[in-house]
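It is worth pausing here to work through a concrete case rather than discussing structure prediction in the abstract. The textbook approach is simple: state the sequence, then state the predicted structure, then interpret. We follow exactly that order.
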Amino acid sequence: MADNDINISMVVNAPVEQVWPLLVEHQQADSKAIGQKYFSDLSPKPVVAGQVIHKRLGFLHLRIYIDRIVPADPPAEGQTTLIRIVFLGREGKLTSSWVHDTERYHIQEQFEFDHPWLKNTDQITIRCLGIDTSSCVIIYTCQSMTNIRLVPRWLARLLDNNDHIEKDTLTRTIETSLRDIKTKAEQSFHQPPTYPLQT
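Step two, the predicted structure:
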């Protein structure tokens, strides 16, 4: 079993209103990467409720049922997708949700896969909190847990070690992404205004 949390905070010398669009833009790219981790090549188009996908991954044949897609309550943007996945003769459930709340400068994403063979949960929370009119702090939290139920102990330990390596890589990637947001926001905020030339 692996239980890997990531907690990162970064002060940005720019107003929260200026940092938020950059944060959403970066997180959408990160969400796409996470989605590919779970749904890579499963469907060439966005999934729709009622869709059934057949996919072969190595020796596994997967049947994926898209049961429901529920939009987030306004004014927040987002959705929750409820999915059943059948492989090795057993059925598991996957819940994938994301919400962007512009009024509270808050992003939340959650992936939970529960199957007789394993359980995996990833929850990402990002907040952008104003310090004053010209600065804010980004707080990034990722809670991840994997519980492999029906494998030998030596294999579970090996997978646990791999999870720790992946956590270090992911932490560096997130820190780089947040530094990029910080740099862009601060450059934009501190850039002197340009005025048209008078003729």
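Step three, interpretation. Residues 153-190 form the longest helix (38 residues). The beta strands are 2-12, 52-57, 60-71, 77-87, 90-101, 106-115, 118-132, 135-148.
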